[in-house]
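Practice set, problem 2.
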Amino acid sequence: MQKVIYYVAASLDGFIATEDNRLDWLLQFGFEAFQDHYNRFMADVGAVVMGAETYRWLRAEEPESWEYSQPCWVLSHREEPAPPEGDIRFASGHVREILREVRDAAGERNIWVVGGGNVAAQFAEAGLLDELWVTYMPVALGSGRRLLPVSGPTAPMRLLAATSFDGGATELRYGVSKAQ
C-alpha cells in the first residue's frame, strides 16, 4: 500500500539544517553506516516531493547531476533551472491537489517528502502524511530549520520501529495519526 513518508535526519534538538541551510553538522557523520538502510528505503520510493529551498541546495551541491531517478515535484511559485537529466516538475498550490498527480506517478510505491520541514508540515496539517522517519544524529545545533514546523500540536504518533546505527544515530519511525 502506497504511503507518504517524511524521511529526514535531524539534530537531537529538532533541526534539519542550520539557519543558513548548511548541513555540515550532518555530513560529518558520513553515509557508510546508513547506506544499506537508505537503499532499502529508496527501493520502495516511486516519487519525490521537496520544497524549493531543498531543490536549490541540491542543485548548488551538484549542478550537473541529479540524484533521483523517480519523478520529482518541487513546490515553488516559480520554475528553477533544471539539471540536464531527471524528471522534475514544478508545482504550486495546495499539497492535496499536487498529491493526486504525485500518487499517479508513484504507482504502488511510496512517496518521499524529502524536505524541508515546511513542506512536510503542509502534508501533516492536511492529514496527508502517513509516516515520519527521523534519524536523530548525536549533535545539537541550538537553532536552525525545524524538523516539523506545524502550526499547533499534532495528534499522538505511533512508534512503528527504532533502528540504531554505528556512531550513535537512531532512526525512529512513526505512524502519523490522521485525526487532527
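Problem 2, part (b): a different protein.
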Amino acid sequence: MTESAGSGRDAEAVSKFVESFAAQLVEAGMQRMAARVFAALLASDKGVLTSAELSEQLQISPAAVSGAVRYLAQTHMVSREREPGSRRERYRVHGDQWYEALTNREAVLKRWEGALREGVASLGPDTPAGRRMAETLAFFEFIEGEVAAMMERWRVYRGKTFGQG
C-alpha cells in the first residue's frame, strides 16, 4: 500500500502534485526520473521511501529509481540510509535539502572561477575574449558572495520561522 493511500490522503491528488512539481523541476533542468523521485519523497509524510515504494508509487522500475537516487544523492537532494535490521536502503529528503543543494554548488562555482581565471590569463585580459571571460568571472564571484550572504539570512529566517537553526 502506498503511503498516500495509507494516510487517508487522496492518492490521485498526491500523484497529480508529484507529476506537476516534477514537470516544473524538469523544465528547470533536472533529469526527469530524478525529478519524479524527488517530488515523491518531498510529498511523503515521513520524507522517507524505499525503492519498492517509489517503484510502486511512480510505476517505474527499480533500476530507474536507482539511477534517479544516484543523481539526487550526488546533488545532495536526498540521502541514502539502511532500514534498521535490513539490507534494504531507504531514501530520505531533508527539510534543508534546498539549502544543502545550494551550499554544495559553492564548490562548482569555485572550479568555474578557477577555469575562468586560467581563461583570462590564456586569452589575455585586454583581448575581447579575455574581457568577456573576466566579466563572467566577476559575475560568478559576485554570485558566490551573494549566495553566502543569502544562506546566512536564510538560517536566521528559518530559526525564527520554524525554530530550527
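Answer key, part (b): The chain has seven helices and three strands. The first helix runs from residue 3 to 6.
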